[in-house]
Amino acid sequence: MMRAWNQGATALCLLLGLAVTCLGSATSLAREDLRIDITQGRFDPIPIAVRPFYGTQPDTETLGTHVADVISANLHRSGLFDPIDPAAFIGPVTGVQVRPRFGNWAALKAEALVKGSITPEPDGRLKFEYRLWDVARRADLVASSFTTPERNWRRVAHLISDQIYERVTGETGYFDTRIVYIAETGPRDRRVKRLAVMDQDGANHRYLTDGKHLVLTPRFSPTAQELVYLGYYQRNRPRVYLFNIVTGQQAVLGDFPGMTLAPRFAPDGTSVIMSMAKDGATNIYTLDLATRVQRRLTGSVSDINVSPTYSPDGEQVVFVSDRTGTKQLYVMRDDGSNMVRISREKGQYDTPVWSPRGDLIAFTKTRPPVPGSTDRYYIGVMRPDGRGERLLVGGYLVEGPTWSPNGRVLLYAEEQLERATGTIRRVLRSVDLTGQNHRVVPTPLEASDPAWSGLLQ
Amino acid sequence: MGIRSLLFVAASLVLAACAQDPDTTETSGAGTTTAPAVTAPAPAATAPVAPVAAGPVPGSEEEFLVEVGDRVFFDYERSDISEEARLTLDRQALWLNRYTDITVVIEGHCDERGTREYNLALGERRANAVRQYLIASGIDAARIETISYGKERPVALGSDEASWALNRRGVTVIN
Amino acid sequence: MRGSLLVSVTMHAALVALAWFGLPYLQPEPPELDEVIFVQLSDLAEVTNLPPEPGEAPPEPPRPEPEPSPPPAPEPEPPAPPPPAPEPPASPAPAPPAPEPPPEPRVRPEPPPAPTAEPAPERPQPVPPRPRPRPKPRRLDLESVLTDLKREKDPPRAEKRQSLADVIDRTTRLGSDPDFDPTKTVTQSEISRVRQQIAACWNIGVAGAGVEEAETLAVEVRIVMNPDRTVRDATVVNESRMTGDTAFRIAAERALRAIRHPDCRVLVLPDDKYEVWKTFTFNFDPRKLVQ
User: Fold this and answer.
1) pTM (2 decimals)?
2) What is the pLDDT of residues C151-165, one digit of tens each?
3) Which of A194, B29, C129, C242 shows its CA 20 to 30 Å from the CA of C144?
4) Using CB atoms, which residue from A41, A107, A138 is nearest to C203?
């Protein structure tokens, strides 16, 4: 561009005399140089229209509506998008290859538009295609297609949601993920607890245990194929178990003389870090899943060191310890060296979890209620050096945050106390880093101990 | 002499536990508020020191529950043995020394406050505190197992100081 | 020889004149000034109520002086007062607007977003009025989008060369060009109005969402306008960065979306100053917003 400009200028210089023109062109540049700084804008969710996917047959047509609904719901829950009510859509549903009438969508204030098609393949599978359009610029942003048996339609909808999310925000999505948690029923003193998994949006819910034994604190492996959790199966021997979701097989993890608890996978999935409580002290151990080698990382004789979690690079561990008499967060190297306390504000800290992005550590915090509030517990985040603490949400009892794979949303467990009746209801909730997008995650029964998987493979 | 030295060990353990100084206002605040509650529930469990004549069968679980008392209580977030608890545990030690073929499991429990994982560890520490006291009182360590239930098995269902005080407990269960 | 000397002298004279008239009025527009005024006008009603021109006049005193023809100078000013006219709620008696009925029908008095927004939904079909000559068949995937954008680079260049030619042209017949009136600068209040309009179209997305750096990246967009105040072409300066740098791409797309937003289809620029705003640069700078 500059080159052409220079050529033009040179030619004119030759024609008209060097000094004059060159200065003349400088003047013209100056004249053009009107510059308008825009330093104000809106911070709104992006209005997006997700059209029902076009289907040629009645059943694919219905499916097309479902796919669009799942995508819309995902985007809506993220808080970053504002899906437009399909009732406002104009004109017949058309296939993905038909260019949208952008005027119609601009009129609805849509900034983005999703169109898709579902076509049966000769082998009986379905081809899901979609295209994301930038309405204002009349340009398409991303498109792809998935061919798969019909029963996988929800996963396709989640994958499409992730691609849309990523294309518009620049961040990876988190919709093609699962949640494992503890489903609860029965009176508080005889609670029946079962392992349960579901899709991130609550669909495909199923129980993994029958409730005869107490089960607690499940966590996903990086591939989401396995779980580690605490089970009270053997008499008087609560232990951490490794459970394969696909095969249904499970086994005690390691050979420890005391109770093992609070397990988490290492980021590479080759080992598990957990605590063992024995003789009044709780210390942190790692167990290599291949070699079965156990290694102790802390050596307290009377303190509790629990809830260890790796940094995403696997080089550091954050955990809670009451070695000073109150619960505080500490970071150490993965061999137990270089231990540093990071929590520094007033109050007590618990269940630290390192963000998959590595930039933050989420935690549970306790502090005395401030006047005018009954909140005692908080979910917050701080930087790994302990600075920049922010409390995102509070409640009568909230605990155990778990990150979405993109490090933007936290799930946690809440016990809601209804003061009038004294009853407690346990639910899963989510909150994003803004602290504004705060939702209940619907579950069939009461729920606790959520853990979010990474993106499915 | 063996017993004497064990008692000494036990005492120093208890002192060591006491020496752990809570540095937040919360802990101390909760401690003062729960103090009365701790004394209140105690009689419920340890009720009849004066035995009823036609009482339970000697050496039975019933006798242990009724005449000895199966549980002790703890302050919020603490695991040290109180004066009150000491009386109960002394009776338990006496009883267990009489029926030497009986083995026990000590359950450690917490109130609903705090996170699940920390409470599991705290429950273990409470159970262990009871176990160490009994060992120091001459009970063979091999007869005493521990298990922690954290906050999973409350006995009082309220969400108030009185209920919490009842739930922060170490329970000696006869096998 | 003699002829060329004459030409040279003429050209030099033209040059001096241009430098005299052309350069100075660009200097006295420091961004700080923008800031202050922007804050003042952040309320829409205020913009229309304020007779902003008088307020602007002081910072540009050099203009009237070199200007041999004072009459034209006031001319551009009056159009501004009309804003009060369409604002009946404002106290100003209808007296002053009366002398200026013609400017009223123009689009300018309309406060930026609202009016343009309303008509839009009513006529979804008529959107085609876009005069842009480039609704190519286009775009199958991201690749093609990018190549398209590259192709779109050309128009501005052509535009620039053309305007250079214009300048040359004008210089040769110096003084006799009625089109070229250096007094017709865009005033601060006129700029404020556009900024306000674009601000309403610029959706940065939910704060803290997405790529963080995208919220700290300034994006410059070269704008080529049509005389009807619609955008003919918008090109991201540094556009090649959009391919490799996700954060920049996200930020740039937000900026382009603002420019193509229906509420910003027609920019609130003074239509008698097309020469001045025929091409210009929007600098979308979120840094002062974030945090």
Assistant:
1) 0.72
2) 333 333 333 344 444
3) C129
4) A41
